[in-house]
Description:
Layout: E1 5-11, E2 17-18, E3 33-39, E4 71-72, H1 77-83, E5 87-88, E6 92-97, H2 103-115, E7 121-125, H3 130-140, E8 148-152, H4 156-166, E9 170-174, H5 191-208, E10 212-216, H6 229-233, E11 236-241, E12 248-256, E13 264-270, E14 273-276, H7 280-285, E15 295-302, E16 305-317, E17 325-328, H8 332-346, E18 353-359, H9 371-383, E19 391-393, E20 396-397, E21 403-404, H10 409-418, E22 423-427, H11 428-433, E23 442-446, H12 449-455
Helix pairs in contact: 2-3, 8-9
Amino acid sequence: MVKKAKTVFVCQDCGFESAKWMGQCICGAWNTMIEEKIVEINEDDSRRRVDPFRELKAVSLSQVKSGQFSRIDTGIGEFNRVLGGGLVKGSLVLISGEPGIGKSTLIIQAAAKIAEQNKKVLYVTGEESEEQIKIRTDRVCSGNLDNLFLLAETNIENIIHVQEQMKPDFMIIDSIQTMYSDGIESAPGSVSQVRACGNYLMKVGKTKNIPIFIVAHVTKNGELAGPKIIEHLVDCVLSFTGERNQELRILRSMKNRFGTTSEIGAFEMEEAGLLEIDNLSRSFLEGMEEGVEGAVATAIYEGTRPLLLEVQALTTPTNIGFARRTAVGVELSRLNMILAVLERKTGTSFINTDVYVNIVGGLKPEGTSIDLAVALAVYSSQRGIVCPSRTLTIGEIGLTGDLRSVQNIDKIIREASRMGFEKVILPEKNAAKISDAPKNLKMIGAKSIRDAIRSL
Length: 456
C-alpha cells in the first residue's frame, strides 16, 4: 500500500509552515515559501528499527559524536578479547556451533558473570525448559544469580512484551530457529520467520540500547543455518568450534563491527564448565615429541597475540590408484602447491606417495605464514630427517621456491624466546629487519626453500 504524502509550504527564512502558499510570510519575507511533501509514518510499524516517537530527521555526519563505545564486561577475558573488549550496548551478537560443543555453557557463564555485576539478564530459551537451564547453571556457575531471569517462550511478541516490562540490561535468545511471529503463518525456523524475528530483535536492541545474544544452529558443513539475512543484520558473528572428544574449544569472530575479526579465544571444557586458556601456545606444543620425523613447530599471528603451533606430516607409498592428499587445518589447494614446489626445487617425487598433513589442536590458521613448516614437515617425513623440536620455522613459499616475509615477526620472535626455542628459520628479509633479537635465540635467514632445508 502506497502511503499518501501531505503537501506543506515552508518559509526558507524562518521555517514557518503553512497548508497553502503565501506570497509573503508572517516574518515579512516575500517569495520564500517552498513546497515540501511529508510522508506520514505509522507509529506501530514493526519494520522500522528506530523509535517511532523519535523525530525522523537526517543529521550531518560532522554532528555525530564519535568515541569509545559503551561496553559491558562479560567477566570472561577470552570472550572479551574476541568481542573487542566486551559487549557493546545495543549490539546484536550471533553465535553458532555444532550441537554439544559448549555454546549454551559459554552463554550461561557469561550471563551469570554479568548478573553478578547487578545487571538484569533475561535468558530466553526455546529449546530447553527452565529446569534444564537451572541444572546447567548449578553445575558451571556460582555466586548470586538473583538478577538472572529465565523465560521459556518461542513467541517473539510475548518475548518483547516481557522485555518491555522487565527492562533487562542484557538479553539472550536460544535459539533463533525456534522463534516465531504471529504475523507470519510459516513454521518456526523458516526463512520468513528467522528474518522477521531477527528484525524484531534488531529493533529492540537498537531502540532500547540492549545488547542481545542470539544462538543459531549450523548445517552439516558447519555453516550457519537459515537465511544469510540474519548474518547481515547482526553486528557480530562468532563461531565456536572444537572436537567433542577433545577438551580444546576455539571461539573465533567471523564478523565484528566493533573490533577485529582476527582474534580467537581459547577454552578448555571441564566438568565445571569452560575454563580460559591463558597460554595457548603451550597448549598446542605440549604434546610435541623430541626426535620424531614429520613434526615441525611454526607460528602465526592471530589478532593481538602470536600463537605457536605444531605441524605434522606423514608420507607413505601409494598402494592402489592415485596418490592421496589429505589436510586437516591446511587448505588442500595450498598443500598441492607446496608439494609442487618441493618436487621442482628439491627433486623429491610425490607421484606415488600419499601425503597427510595435520595442524595439531584442531586450529585452522589463516594466512600463509605456515607454508615453510608444512614443506619441511613433508620433506622430513619423506626423507627420514628429524627436525629439532626447539627449532621454529616460519615463512610463506612462493611458486619460485623463494621465501616471502611475514608480518609481526618481532612479536613472534619474542614469544618463541619465551617458550624456550633455540633456533628460528625465517625469511631472509625478516631476519635483516630484526635488530633486537633475544640472545638465547639463533636467527637463520633463508632466501629459498633449499636454504631452509640446508639449515636443518
